[in-house]
Amino acid sequence: MNNLNEAIKQAEHIVFLTGAGVSVASGIPDYRSKNGLYAGMNSPEYMLSHTCLVREPEKFYQFVTENMYYPDAMPNAIHTKMAELEAAKNVTIITQNIDGLHEKAGSKKVVNFHGSLYHCYCQKCGMSVAAEDYLKSDIHANCGGVIRPDVVLYEEAIPEDAIDQSLTAIRQADLIVIVGTSFRVSPFCNLTDYRNKKARIFAVNKERISLPYPFEMMENDAVKVFAEM
């Protein structure tokens, strides 16, 4: 714990790489754990695929609105501590999460690597649509087009600007902290391949992760770790 605190104090450019485990304490389930979103479901990857959106938009809409949105969820100690650090340091958060909690906590430099449920748009006219309106209907009142959340679905590519912003931050970082993720989903887990080789790397996760380079593992509840910083 003291090692991470000291590393944060000394660092000039910090990158936090965050995954689903960061938001579990805020009441948002992760995907693949025994109590996760996919538990007991048939073909959840299909439900969150580009093919489902195109072929069965009603089924896609029902799945997403019933299972993915937690508008009342509040940031926990991890989100708030990262936002506090950003106020004092050069901090970039690159997150796999699509729940908007980093922004809700006050963080400004957030790269939503897989998009955000709270950015929605009409596929026909391209107009932005408030998430509150999308939750009422996926048909755009203005043009009759089908609305979708701006998230990366299965079969879709990561947006180039998200990759570019992430690589720029990773290359500048002298400290990289991986939090709440098994760090096995590509291309997110490949970002550290582009790091400054002098950068220190920490991982804070309930389960030990494996990386092909030196790093410091903190096998602990990230909420507890960040609350005690």
Topology:
Layout: H1 2-10, E1 13-18, H2 44-47, H3 50-55, H4 57-67, H5 77-88, E2 90-95, H6 101-104, E3 110-112, E4 115-122, E5 128-129, H7 131-134, E6 147-151, H8 160-172, E7 175-179, E8 200-205, E9 216-219, H9 222-227
Parallel strand pairs: 1-2, 1-7, 2-3, 7-8, 8-9
Antiparallel strand pairs: 4-5, 4-6
Structural notes for this entry:
By secondary structure, the chain is of the alpha/beta class. It has helices at 2-10, 44-47, 50-55, 57-67, 77-88, 101-104, 131-134, 160-172, 222-227, and strands spanning 13-18, 90-95, 110-112, 115-122, 128-129, 147-151, 175-179, 200-205, 216-219. The strands form two sheets. The chain has a six-stranded parallel β-sheet, sandwiched between helices. Strand 4 (115-122) and strand 5 (128-129) form a beta hairpin.
Based on the model shown, name its key terms.
229 residues; Sirtuin_cat_small_dom_sf; alpha/beta; 6-stranded parallel beta sheet; DHS-like_NAD/FAD-binding_dom; 9 strands; 3-stranded antiparallel beta sheet
